[in-house]
Amino acid sequence: MSRLPIDHPEVHQQFMHGGFSVQLGSQNPFGRIPVDQTIEETVNRDTQTAGGTKGFSLKRAAVERYYLTSEYRSNYLKQLRRMVGRRISHFSHPDLQMPRITRDEADVQSIVKLLEDDWTNPFDPMKVSLSAFRQVPFPPDVARDVLDAHKIGMEAYKGFKRDRLEDEKPKTQFHDKMTKKRLKMLSDIRKKPSASNPNKVILQVDRKLFAHMVLVAESRHLQMSDVLSHPLGPLPWALANGDGTLRKTNKAVLTRELEKQVLPAETIPGPSATIIDGMSLVQKMKGNDQTFSQHAASALTQILHEGARSQRIDVVFDVYQEDSIKNAERANRGCTTGIQFRNIAPGHRI
After folding, report:
1. Chain segment 64-87, per-residue pLDDT in tens
2. Which domain holds residue 39?
3. What highest taxon heads this organism's lineage (predicted)?
């Protein structure tokens, strides 16, 4: 193609005048298609048969006549359509109609307003912090790698060129293995840290202690069953994991045991109050394809329904304090890598 103006100047001139595509109809401004597709849309479509060439005939002479006369048969079919008054319908592209144009312009203005007024504009050069479209704050390591990816790549390229090509005595051979730059990208924001097997870690750390306990038990004539009844780790296994984090238990088991000791009341005496677990209510509700205002209205409706017979309704939510016994559970749930929303407006969809 680079020698096309030299070897075939007439073809190059035809291409420069737009000869690489075909305009089938004068009414369709977006109807230009490639030349090979034009053959498919005209001659091949007018002369096609059920089953294609194989379904037409398996005789070589018949197939040759079929292809040699296909252009003429297509032309005859086109003239027959004109004789019977069959015309191509008037072109009307849906994207060029005024209702569609108005709706598309309204969508564009809505996005612009959302970026400039409601959310942080990710295209603003004055913003120092790095944010995604859904208001997800970037961790410092991810933001640093994303912003410096081009710089790190250029330094790696210069090092490759210097160590393998430019030096008279290269430190590294050209075909030697390259070290990959493991940069953190946008996809790493939602990745949860992989937890290794805590039992395996404790066994590797305390294997010398275990051997020492065996020697002491033999010298003092102790029963190994009594020795092994004590935890070998730094913390009891019933309370903590091998890495030191608090072991998670099923609180619903305790709830069911407490409910067994309470007899359900046939009638609730008045005046009475209804206490609702707010986070439990949010988890039970399905907020897909709803805005935050619609979701709040649905929650309020359910709350009023549950406490309709009470004179007072209390909805209790969790309080997230920085220093809390729930810090271990938050770390397990990935609070540092999860998505956080800011500047939430009632019209934003969940």
Report:
1. 888 888 888 888 888 888 888 776
2. 4-83
3. Eukaryota
